[in-house]
Design a protein that fits this description.
The chain is α+β, with helices and mostly antiparallel strands and 190 residues long. Helix content is 22%, strand content 40%. The chain has a six-stranded antiparallel beta sheet, with no helix packed on it. The protein has a two-stranded antiparallel ribbon with strand order 4-5. The chain is globular, with a radius of gyration of 25 Å. It comes from Algoriphagus iocasae. Pfam families: DUF2911 (PF11138). This is DUF2911 domain-containing protein.
Amino acid sequence: MKTRYLLFGAAFVALVNISCDPKSSETMEKTEVSETAEEASESENRPSPLEVKDGEISGKPFKVHYSSPAVKGRVLWGDLVPYNVVWRTGANEATYVELSQDMTIEGQKLAAGKYSLFTIPKEDSDWTVIFNSDWELEHGHFQYDEKNDVLRVDVSPVWEENSQERFSIDIENPGLVVRWEKLKLPISIN
């Protein structure tokens, strides 16, 4: 019986010593920091970095998530981004927006929620902007399904003289503005 108590006591003391060892907690903290640093490094090393923009449109919270590709000397419109074909409006995963309240997009109502954002670029006419209920798509337009479209609106692109290297979507007047290369696509939201 004494042997059993001695073994139990020794195991308990060893367990307490291991759990109180400062090296163990330091190692755990370093591991957590390393994982966080690895995640940050992975995000920084993406050719098209992730962007999240928070703001308000007409006093209502609005958020947009997208990947930001660069022009890199490529011909975009009609080549990298073909005309008359659904484009994921960014790179990598599908771009998506979060509306905390119902809003009006180009004069049409859109209920609060999360929506992937797609466009159909056109060479000589208005572009089609699509809000789709399937917002969590890993491969953008490759998984796009038209039957999940909640809203489609036509928007007039503006072609500017200055070129913007990195794709961006900003929450600004008149609501949401997509820019890339010489494109400015202002989407009216309120």
